[in-house]
Amino acid sequence: MGKKGIGVLLTAAMMACLLSGCGGRTEAQTGENSTAQQEHREREASEGTRDSVIVAMGVTSEPEAGFDPAYGWGAGEHVHEPLIQSTLTVTTTDLQIGYDLATNMEVSPDGMTWTVTIRDGVKFTDQEPLTAEDVAFTYNTVKEISSVNDFTMLDRAEALDESTVVFHMTKPYSIWPYTMAIVGIVPEHAYGPDYGQKPIGSGRYMLKQWDKGQQVILEANPDYYGEAPQMQRVTILFMEEDAAFAAVKAGQVDLAYTAASYGDQSIEGYDLLSFETVDNRGFNLPAVEPEERDGGTVGNAFTSQVEVRRAINIGLDRQEMLENVLNGHGTPAYSVCDKMPWYNPDSQVEFDREGAKEILEQAGWKVGADGIREKDGVRAAFTLLYPASDSVRQALAADTGNQLRELGIEVTIEGVGWDTAYTRAQSEPLMWGWGAHTPMELYNIYHTLDGSAEYSPYANSLVDRYMDEALAASDLEESYELWQKAQWDGTGGITQEGDIPWIWLVNIDHLYWSRQGLQVAEQKLHPHGHGWSIVNNVDQWSWE
């Protein structure tokens, strides 16, 4: 998606490393290895063991503001399990909530306080104890200065004693445990403006070295309270997509991100790994009639008609897109949260081109002499925008246009920058990318803000009510059902038989070249962004 709005809870997915690659490290740099890395390899060889790995990530995976949770580390492109800092909770392989630093949590009946008990005996890597005071300090700090995540639901955090912290909320927020899974705990005694450059944490690894624009070296934390990492040293190289591919061919990395365009190749000594994601692509359809708001046009005369949106949804062959655009590396997408615990399977539709034509015909959209439909002087046509730097979204937009032409709909595609994309999406469809480990993704896209949804003009009070009730629920499991009802409750919602203001196309598999012999641990669904998610469990990787 570009940036997922600052008011978005998790989603810094928002500034994704696009599958088409990003600028940065050049091929000439791929052979550069630090002296420390060479020495570690030599030790491995002499001892006959192997406990290190070199991973190539996209250049946007490097956290420009450093490894500070207040400035986006741990969110969006930088989502990870507790690497450098511990988090109170984690998401499990089935995207439920598990514990990390926390050992217990309770929410009050009114949802206004969360009481969390933390582990005893945890130390930061400078040997200072981690207490509830550090937890409270962390959350009060990120609430005050976070540049990425929304903490308006938090009033304040308070340490009751060394092992108990209480979160006082401004409003009930049932999915607070998902927020606790992305906020790394920082030490109050060692936090300052430069913390992100030399972070101190209590997670599985310590930041040993950061050569900005090139690499990060992590070393296992010998005092980690959990199971000792099998990988004692992890080197992350930040590279352009083409440079990463060259590094694989040269045998200089053990695992490297890649795109579907490389998926049909083979490299001696490497296997292509594919991981399912909730990293989706789709486009909005402005759901209101055109009108002037705040000096700009909002709405679209063609896409404002629900029959048009329903016809488009079933008239697109998603499987064909997967084969033609992604070389088969993906799954069809029907919502922004496919396969998540809060996904409503009623979102799924069958491809039916003839049925789509019938919907348009019955709604009065008649085919003209040039093959394009028209109704009451309105032409069945729109411009489909895509980020100009993203070849995958461009290809999806082109494929969408070709398929809709067969329905009698004319689509013109246009590459744009994010400086104008958000504004233009209020009246023209835009090819987006979303996907996060939190139900707030649904809220941020469909819930009204000052009378209309934020990213595309749409409003439904029923959908709003279900989402508000979901957030106010006293039980997380109970909230899942309400999120599902917001999608479709049998009479209304945002699916095919409802308002269908967004069309979801594909979930993009995340692909990696992996050196043979490297055992990458089982991955959970990756969120939007081809970044740090792959090393969520790097401590569990091993070599044959």
Describe this structure in words.
The chain has 544 residues and is α+β, with helices and mostly antiparallel strands. Helices cover 22% and strands 24% of the residues. The protein contains twelve helices and 28 strands. It has helices spanning 35-47, 132-145, 176-180, 241-249, 306-314, 318-326, 353-362, 391-405, 418-424, 440-446, 461-472, 476-487, and strands at 52-58, 89-91, 97-99, 102-107, 113-118, 154-161, 164-169, 205-211, 215-220, 233-239, 255-258, 270-275, 280-284, 291-293, 296-298, 330-332, 366-367, 373-375, 378-379, 381-387, 410-416, 431-434, 448-449, 452-453, 502-508, 510-515, 518-519, 542-543. Strands 8-9-10-1-11-26-12 form a seven-stranded mixed β-sheet. It has a four-stranded antiparallel β-sheet with strand order 4-5-7-6, with helices on one face. Strands 16-25-13-22 form a four-stranded antiparallel β-sheet. Strand 14 and strand 15 (296-298) form a beta hairpin. Helix 5 runs antiparallel to helix 7 (353-362). Mean pLDDT is 91; it is low at 1-33.
